[in-house]
Design brief:
Layout: H1 2-29, H2 32-61, H3 68-73, H4 80-85, H5 91-113, H6 121-141, H7 166-181, H8 183-195, H9 201-232, H10 242-267, H11 271-293, H12 309-329, H13 346-378, H14 386-406, H15 417-440, H16 446-475, H17 480-490, H18 492-516, E1 519-525, E2 530-533, E3 536-547, E4 551-562, E5 565-570, E6 573-577, E7 580-587, E8 589-592, E9 596-606, E10 611-620, H19 622-640, H20 644-661
Antiparallel strand pairs: 1-10, 2-3, 3-4, 4-5, 4-6, 6-7, 8-9, 9-10
């Protein structure tokens, strides 16, 4: 089985290389057979990569510890749920998983759009074949998951305890789906530049790939935050960790691209800028992978240091430099006669939106790489922590929230300022009333006042726009529910975008509340003693232990009450894995309430006196963070689904492209 898996990887690598070379030759010489051959080779690479992943999954399920990778990341006591997590739980397996996703996405794209985009897709195959070949090269010749041990061990080393959480079974695949998914719009963009087909056709071909990849990136980031909240035990969900930032940066660039590309579709503007954003997004996905795997940053997320760093650095350099050269050579093809006609226009709002996103991206990038630069130049590594990011990035996000409210209301080309002011007046007055109410209730911190007020204003504007559309449908005789369904069905992209904005605003409220008003207390207690934090009382009711097949759980029973009313018992614990005794895990216990969480950590335990040290956090509005992410993802899926009007435009565009490219002949 191991030899079969490795052979499949090597053959997939060869097929990817051939696909890129044959497609380039076929497109250059206008040779239909060569182009078709390259297409079939890419499909074969996807099938072979699927076979390799299947072999590795079988090896995990069969506890085949003759494979070094299986021995490193699983054991006989590893639950079935986490055996599959082991596939991407280490360096070699995650690279194979990444390679599989790239080849699979590429195969789906060329099967679904081959006739529609016959002029673009040969060059699309060149790009995706090259990207897939790079990752398959790493799997075949640098980090081979099918490497055998010379001595067969009786049991495995076990999965890293940090990865034994339901979120880690979902977080990496979601993140990988998002990061690898960005290969597809990048490849369409590069194919458009190389083939000189720089009209809106490549945007039509790649729009949904971008939306879906962005949705998976959003899911991956939120699941990562939840995993950190449940497992890492520092009371929060985002710590501006370098690897967290490495995933956030392509999300920021992709978000800017999704907004900016609408201007190109509507007005034909920002064509060079959009290509640049696409190159930047893909380059950041590779850079983030490089940072994670090269051992350059200190993080609980990083893989062990290995030899793949130089390969990633070379590939990142080639991709970015090569893409910029192609963009430079095609600048005349991207020229446009249009311009932004007024500051009070939707084009200007989108431009401001992009500037803010790039400001946030640069701030995150600089804070992430500065410690590396400092160590290279001064031989001293400095630490850039949350205070820097919160001080620099959060005000930029505040500006984005304001534009989020105003942008959709501004007309294209030139808006009527009086009409705009009149439209915004009502939500502004109501949001000021909300701020005044919060002030009376004791919300006095300036960050909370500004953050809640801005979020309320943007939310009111967005809801008012939705209500305006519903009222228009009601005037045509629709019932309330029918009006909402029809509204979304007729313009999913627009109203799905509004739902995304609502999700972002709920998330913003949660971030502000949980950061500004978090309470922390620590106490050492004997059995029967209690501590207080805010309105909560916590009484230590004793110690306990549970013997699990793969670990020993030691926990404390904590009775929680609020103003005398019992809320239940929490059991913060420490897990000692039998195969990883050098890695004890501190697992918090969390009482989830609609407006706040009570988060309890078990610290030191004195065996002689059975006294325990507890660290307790009260985290307001954390549930709004998770709710906001769910709404955001739902809105993205709505926006990605084609509506009737867009389907007609898409059909016309595809027919035009087929006619221009002579697709049936190919």
């Amino acid at each position: 089985m191991a030899e079969l898996g490795y052979l499949a990887v090597v053959l997939a690598f060869g097929a990817s290389v051939y696909a890129a070379v044959a497609s380039a030759a076929g497109a250059t010489r206008a040779s239909g057979p060569l182009v078709a051959s390259g297409r079939r080779a890419l499909l074969a690479a996807a099938a072979l990569a699927t076979l390799a992943v299947g072999v590795l999954v079988v090896a995990f399920l069969a506890h085949d510890f003759s494979l070094e990778y299986v021995w490193q990341t699983s054991s006989r006591t590893t639950p079935l749920y986490y055996l599959l997590t082991g596939v991407w739980g280490g360096q070699a397996g995650s690279l194979l998983f990444w390679s599989w996703l790239v080849t699979l996405f590429s195969a789906v794209a060329i099967v679904s759009r081959w006739r529609a985009d016959a002029a673009l897709l040969p060059w699309f195959v060149v790009v995706t074949g090259g990207v897939g070949a790079f990752f398959l090269f790493l799997v075949a010749f640098v980090a081979n998951p099918f490497e055998r041990l010379t001595v067969l061990p009786a049991d495995g080393n076990g999965l890293n305890p940090l990865l034994q959480h339901p979120g880690m079974a979902l977080h990496p695949p979601a993140l990988y789906l998002g990061l690898t998914g960005m290969t597809i719009p990048f490849a369409f963009g590069m194919a458009a530049l190389i083939s000189r087909r720089t009209d809106a056709g490549w945007i039509v071909a790649s729009r949904r790939w971008t939306l879906v990849a962005w949705a998976f990136l959003s899911i991956g980031l939120s699941l990562g935050g939840r995993w950190a909240y449940d497992v890492l035990g520092w009371g929060g969900y985002w710590g501006w960790d370098p690897v967290e930032n490495a995933a956030l940066m392509p999300w920021l660039a992709a978000t800017a691209f999704l907004h900016s590309v609408m201007v190109q579709e509507r007005r034909g503007l920002f064509r060079v800028w959009n290509m640049g954003l696409l190159i930047l997004t893909f380059g950041l996905t590779i850079l983030g992978t490089f940072l994670t795997r090269a051992g350059l940053v200190s993080s609980v997320h990083t893989f062990a240091q290995s030899d793949i760093g130089p390969y990633f650095l070379a590939f990142t350099t080639v991709v970015i430099a090569g893409s910029l050269v192609v963009l430079w050579l095609r600048l005349p093809d991207l020229a446009t006669e249009g311009r932004v006609e007024s500051v009070a226009s939707r084009e200007a709002a989108f431009l401001g939106n992009n500037v803010l996103f790039m400001g946030a991206l640069f701030a995150v990038f600089w804070g992430t790489v500065f410690p590396i630069i400092s160590e290279i130049v001064t031989d001293q590594r400095v630490t850039v922590g949350p205070p820097y990011f919160n001080r620099v990035v959060l005000p930029i996000f505040l500006g984005l929230v304001v534009l989020m409210a105003v942008g959709p209301l501004v007309a294209w080309r030139r808006a009527d300022p009086r009409r705009l002011v009149w439209t915004l007046a009502g939500p502004l007055v109501v949001s000021l009333a909300i701020v005044a109410t919060l002030w009376v209730l004791g919300v006095r911190h300036w960050i909370a006042v500004v953050g809640f007020g801005t979020a309320a204003f943007a939310l009111l504007v967005t809801v008012a726009e939705l209500a305006r559309g519903v009222r228009a449908r009601r005037r045509r005789g629709d019932g309330p529910l029918e009006a909402i369904v029809t509204l979304f069905a007729r313009d999913r992209r627009r109203y799905g975008g509004y739902v995304v904005h609502i999700g972002v605003l709920l998330l913003a409220v949660g971030v502000v509340g949980s950061n500004v008003y978090q309470q922390v207390a620590e106490a050492t207690l004997s059995e029967g003693e209690a501590m207080t934090i805010g309105a909560y009382g916590l009484r230590f009711a004793g110690l306990g232990a549970r013997d699990q097949p793969d670990k020993l759980e030691s926990f404390a029973r904590i009775d929680v009450s609020r103003e005398g009313e019992s809320l239940g018992t929490l059991e913060p614990r420490r897990d000692l894995f039998r195969l990883r005794e050098d890695q004890p895990m501190t697992i918090p216990a969390i009482l989830h309430r609609p407006l706040e969480d009570v988060y309890v950590l078990l610290g030191a335990v004195d065996p002689a006196t059975e006294r325990v040290t507890l660290k307790v956090f009260v985290n307001p509005l954390v549930s709004w963070v998770w709710l906001g992410m769910i709404v955001l993802v739902c809105g993205t899926l709505v926006a990605a689904w084609p509506d009737a009007a867009e389907a007609r435009v898409l059909d016309a565009e595809l027919k035009r492209l087929m006619g221009a490219a002579g697709a049936p002949a190919v």
